[in-house]
Amino acid sequence: MPFEKGDFLLIDYVAKVAETGEIFDTTIEEVSKKEGIYQEGVIYEPKLVILGEGLVLKALDEEIQKLEVGQTATITIPPEKAFGNRDPEKVKMYPLRRFTAQGVLPKVGMRIEVNGKMATVRAISGGRVQLDFNPPLAGKTLIYEVTVRKKLESIEEKIRALIHRRIPQVDAGKFGLEISEDNITINVPEEAFYIEGIQVIKRGIFLDIQKFFPEKKTVRFTEVFTRKEPSSEAPSPIAAP
Question: Are residues 35 and 79 in the same domain?
């Protein structure tokens, strides 16, 4: 049975550029290492997609809705439904000294921020730098090989998925959940206390819950410290001099 908007799914995918075959993104660690795109610190695991909520490209979202749990499909997305066609007006030249004066040495392929906008260095010659302000994948046809791993059914599963989306570095099972008719209490484990920006993250989780479960009027976060039991091993006796 096809999915519907609002469904919570976990998907794996491998994404590549049709024109070159280059893989640029994946949820699968083995594939990332094989293709040389592995990033230290990135957590490779099935991705949460809430259909119709813009967590993936709209064209990809629409095609996923036609699948079933366990199904793998190859989805081709043309540039106009991906990152748009390349605009030659967005390719501009800048003097090299503008960057070297700031301690930046541009290299071809480097991403540089200029006036609050990101650009890719395309060429350097004659003391000038050619910058491309088009998205890196503009003008490319994208191919996604997608597998739907699971559809989340219970409210507990969905809330844990929303927490994990914001705090992927901590096992979602370590968060205690108390769910009542109009309230949710989230017991936060000690290892999450000191994550950078945790207060902003908690507000993000609250806003997610309010959006998808508007009947839950209150979300409480409690910090749980657990006393570590002393080692049961007796200390080694100290030999007399």
Answer: yes
Which of 54, 69, 60, 62 minimizes the C-alpha distance to 9? 69
Tally the domains of the chain.
3
Q: Do 119 and 192 belong together in one domain?
A: no
The order of strands in the sheet holding 183-189 is: 176-179, 183-189, 218-224
Digitized pLDDT (tens) for each residue of the chain, 241 residues in all: 679 999 999 999 999 999 999 999 999 999 999 999 999 989 999 999 999 999 999 999 999 999 999 999 999 999 999 999 999 999 999 999 999 999 999 999 999 999 999 999 999 999 999 999 999 999 999 999 999 999 999 999 999 999 999 999 999 999 999 999 999 999 999 999 999 999 999 999 999 999 999 999 999 999 877 777 776 655 555 555 5
The last residue of a domain, from among 152, 180, 204: 152
Range of the domain at 92: 88-132
Q: Please list, residue by residue across 132-171, b when 16 or more beta carbons sit within 10 angstroms of its beta carbon and e when fewer do.
A: bbbeebbebbbbbbbbbeeebeeeeebbbbbbbbbbeebe
End-to-end Cα spacing for the chain: 79
Strands (E), 98-208: 111-114, 117-125, 128-132, 142-152, 176-179, 183-189
Instruction: Say whether both 66 and 16 belong to one domain.
Output: yes
